[in-house]
Structure formats: structure tokens, C-alpha cells
Amino acid sequence: MNLGRDIVATVAAADSPLGQVARAVDVLSSHLPTPRQPRACPFCLASRWPCRPFLDTAQHITDHGVDAASLVPRDLHQVLWPDNKPATRAS
User: What is the sign of the dihedral through the CA atoms of 71, 74, 79 and 83?
Assistant: First the structure.
């Protein structure tokens, strides 16, 4: 299955902030749009991006002390943060 973006896997200690939100990182990544369609969620077929599942998951990740901006490709930062000031919140 081609998700439109290259992906990598990483290992984190289960009790680290990143390890505690590992499943949420997977969910967040599944809702990232392709480079060719930066305003369409590939998972929520009828939703524009950022979709509600992406925003809710980004907030959950942030609430656990992980910077959601570091999990989003740079080409999407301008879509999420038009002021060009990435914050730890995606909403």
C-alpha cells in the first residue's frame, strides 16, 4: 500500500514520553496528506486536512509532552501554522 509519504520506524523506551504515545504517533501519521494533495486526508476520505482525528491526536501527543510539530513533515507546517510559527499544538 502506497501512503504517499516515505515512512520510518523507530524504537523508544515504553516509559518515555514518546513511547507512551507511540500508538498515537501511528494514528497521526496515518492522517498525513500526500505531498500532491496537502489539503486532503488520505484516511478520512471525505475530510479536508487537517481532519478532526489528526487534530485530536496531535493534541493528545502534545498533552503528553511530545512536540507534535516534530512529527509533521515541514511542507505541512505552513498549512497547520500559517503564521510560520510552529507551536506544539496542531489546533
Answer: positive
Coil vs helix vs strand at 48: strand
Q: Where are the domains of the chain?
A: 17-80
C-alpha span between 90 and 83 (Å, rounded): 13
Spatial separation of the C-alpha atoms in residues 37 and 76, rounded to whole Å: 11
pTM of the model: 0.83
Cis omega (within 30 of 0) on the bond before 50? yes
Q: What is the DSSP string of the chain?
A: ---SS--------TTSHHHHTHHHHHHHHHTPPPTT-TTB-SSSTT-BSS-HHHHHHHHHHHHTT--GGGGS-HHHHHHH-TTS---S---
Residue 64 has which C-alpha cell? 503528553
In this prediction, residue 19 carries a pLDDT of: 96
